[in-house]
Design a protein that fits this description.
62% helix; 8 helices; mainly alpha; extended
Length: 187
């Protein structure tokens, strides 16, 4: 339904439902942490971002659909490649004996999944985890620097000038005679 919906907002809502279904499958596979990551990251960030972009951009979808036939050959080639990959994956699955009951990384059965991931992440993969955090920090700083540029015609806040203000420089007290109207110097 995500692909077949004609309304892009409905497509994004179907995508959110697909993410929740994937999270439900992860819960059934006893991977609660992965399920929560799916919900938080994909539904909470990516799908909501898609929804806002689709709703905020006023795109003429009829005009976009008009030129679809130009790319039909590329679409057919990608479909053939995808079918070939699926056939290779099915062949590889049936070729070898897969032992689903055997754990790749043995963990005590009494330890919850989240605790096991935390122990592994903060012991064996600590430097990789910190490196990923550093890369994200650099990306965030880069995004802030790229968006913070000098623009003409925009008043910026001058904090030192604001902090240096006193009562005498902040306001002027004028004596206005009663019922005389506004003096010309104040108009």
């Amino acid at each position: 339904m995500t692909i077949l919906s004609r309304n892009p907002v409905h497509s994004v809502l179907w995508l959110i439902l697909a993410f929740f279904n994937a999270a439900g499958l992860m819960v059934l596979a006893n991977a609660e942490f992965i399920a929560m990551l799916l919900v938080i990251v994909y539904v909470g960030a990516v799908a909501v971002l898609f929804l806002f972009v689709v709703m905020m951009l006023n795109i003429d979808f009829a005009e976009l659909r008009a030129g679809v036939m130009r790319y039909a050959a590329v679409g057919v080639a990608l479909a053939v490649a995808l079918v070939a990959e699926i056939l290779i994956a099915v062949g590889a699955y049936s070729a070898g004996a897969l032992q689903l009951g055997r754990r790749v990384a043995p963990v005590d059965a009494k330890v919850p999944n989240i605790e096991a991931i935390g122990q592994l992440l903060y012991s064996r993969y600590l430097f990789v985890f910190e490196g990923a955090g550093l890369v994200l920090l650099v990306a965030m700083i880069g995004a802030i620097v790229l968006t913070l540029r000098e623009r003409k015609g925009i008043k910026r806040q001058d904090v030192p000038t604001q902090n240096a203000r006193t009562k005498e420089t902040a306001m002027a007290v004028k004596q206005v005679p009663s019922r005389a109207g506004v003096p010309e110097e104040m108009a």
